[in-house]
Amino acid sequence: MRVMGVDPGLTRCGLGAVEGRPGAPLSLLSVGVVRTPADDDIGSRLVVIEAEIERWLDEIRPDAVAVERVFAQHNVRTVMGTAQASAVAIVCAARRGLPVALHTPSEVKAAITGNGNADKKQVGTMVTRLLRLDAMPKPADAADALALAICHVWRGGVQHRLADALARARSGGAVPAGSGRTGRPGEVAAGRPDRGGSTR
């Protein structure tokens, strides 16, 4: 299963993609961050984020997109920007017919570290270990995007297999069209993310 994770934000929108399945080693495909100037108008910033997400989707060709579920914060301005960037990611994926999963921060932390209250350093450390990287992805938004993708591979993979099994049962045992892709690159560079196991 190939999953693209999006840690939404206006100033920094983390993007990360991994490939793997539950119970097997994971592979890093790409990691990066989309940055927009805080003094630009909201429309221009969202256009930049949309364009970069579209470019990633073109090159990664994920099976699913995992986006952090927006939760209430004391800073209304921050949560609004996060929600707007999140909506852009959801629309980009939906436009291509890709399934979108929304995972809460505590859900991701629990999946990655076993502790729903883990801090960003703990999450980054586990992401580094799970993907066998030489260094922790930075900034934290990049590591968080990878954590979202890993969380969905582990949790969404089971749902994906159940959906495939149900589709096969309904079609009399035939493999549903579109399941399983071939010819996809194992490593991509999109939005100047790093390749292989190296990180910035």
Automatic annotation (TrEMBL):
Catalyzed reactions per annotation: Endonucleolytic cleavage at a junction such as a reciprocal single-stranded crossover between two homologous DNA duplexes (Holliday junction)
Annotated positions binding Mg(2+) 1: 7, 141
Single biological process term from Gene Ontology: DNA repair
Broad EC category: hydrolase
PANTHER family: CROSSOVER JUNCTION ENDODEOXYRIBONUCLEASE RUVC
HAMAP family membership: RuvC
Name by which UniProt lists this protein: Crossover junction endodeoxyribonuclease RuvC
Organism per entry: Microbispora catharanthi
